[in-house]
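hiii so my PI (J.) wants the whole complex modelled not just the main chain, which honestly fair. so below is everything: two entries, each one labled with what it is. i double checked the lines twice but i was tired so who knows lol
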Amino acid sequence: MNEAPRHPGPAHRRHDAFEAVFQVAQLTVRRSFKGWRPFIALAVVALPAALGALVAAGRADAQAHEQFFYGMLSRYHFGIAVPVVALVFATAFPWPEAEEGTLTYWFTSPIPRWTVSLGRYLAALLVGTIILTVGVFGIGLPLETRPEADLGQVTRVAAAATLMAYPAYLALFQLVSSVFRKGLAFGVMFIFVENFVALLAGPIVQLTLIHYVRSQLSRAVPPDSLRAAARLVNVAEPASNFAAITAFAGVTIVALGLSLIVVEWIEYRGRTSQPG
Amino acid sequence: MTAPVIEVRDLSRSYGEVVALNEITFEISGGVVGLLGPNGAGKSTLLKILTGELRPSLGTVSVLGMTPFANPDLFHRIGICPEQDAIFEDLTGREFVSFLLRLRGVDPESSGRLAEEWLDRFGLADAMNRRIRGYSKGMRQRAKLAFALAHDPELLFLDEPLTGLDPLWRHNVQKALKEAAARGATVIFSSHVLYEIEAATRQVLMIHRGRLAAQGDAREIRALIDKYPHRVHLTAERPRELGVRVLSWDCVESAAVREGGVDVTTPRPDVFYARLTAEASEGDLGVSGCVSPDDSIKALFETLVR
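here's the output for the full assembly
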């Protein structure tokens, strides 16, 4: 063994919160493309484009393309892809790392736990936003629709809605996975229930984030769109833009804030670790 | 009078109905301290409480005058080598150490330099740019130790730091712990093998079934444990050759080839370990691992408790 490195001692400067969050986010982004989670996210997001290519190859008419586009956007992208991507990234921490044993390195670092949690959130926000934004533009890419359908306009609104909805889902699932060991199962149940409730009539749909997304989309549908296709995104009583932004921002702020608070208090211990 | 580095009063910790620690009280004032006990005795739980990962169920714990749980002010001053093998698999050894140093406030340039220096010191110079997923158990252990020591902490907590290391690296790590103590650090490390602890320190805390069984001088404990034959399992590529060779040593009572290695029984473990290290450092022994089952220490604890 060599001699102990002789050094004047590292500069033991304490990170401020901003630096700590940045450091954590930086490593998390680098590690985001490892393991099964990013593959699930990419597969979920790429599915509509792949199916769209099949539809295009099948020589269906322009109206069928339009109907496929609205169905995928409304039912699949916002009903499944956005929450699933949020769930996949949010539930990677902290319980799975407690089970694995790597949480020790995060939670014995001299930075507050909430900064670790916020860094992880921001990393997942960045990576997920990129994947989902590419995905939303990918839905219409292989399709050939009538010029008056103006899918570009709808796609831009859908991208904007994704940028609002994804942080809210991510914060919600981060809260769930900070508290519960089985955050993934809880999240899957949530997605099923939310999609079911969104299909119902009446004011109960306002409890779902899907309602606010569809409210945005319904206003963006061009008047000359195919009626049967446009019906897929229409909402009986669409929420105003203000209400939608308030809903997304409210869920994001409350859920993220709570998750940053609870992470400071909970004792994360791997289930497989023996008392010893 | 200086305040103790660690002060534990009536500490108890339960996992549901399982009592892992039961009314433990002790103080540590400095130096190297070995935490000795058989597997499942409560050593890791105690270390996790001292390093702020777990809370006590009852009692009080003070480390460097602070309550440890989720306390960044304390974490800034301590180094940790956890028991579990898991590290960030997708990082290289260098990235692993330098990233964690950066989280500890070390500037980017120094963190890279320190990571290289300490990984080199622990024999990972050639492997530091390889992904950790390809590391052996011993290499992971050395990477964790490099991280724990690299930021020159005041207080070091090492949970079974010698696990998975070959005899030569065991010796080197014990030397590194003594050097850290000589620089003024307090070192707390756990083991279920008295002779690992004895090679690094004379201060021992013995834990058995969640209770503090004894606190004192390792030599006194050894006098008791020497009544019980000590077993060691050596892993080797050519176990038969190794078995024949160790059987010729005066300090070895028996040697049996088993499970890719040799089970050795010795009535004089201190002499045995000294010779093992000496011959391993000459490089022709072919020992790749050394594990001591804790049956002899368990027997001693049962005696002490009775």
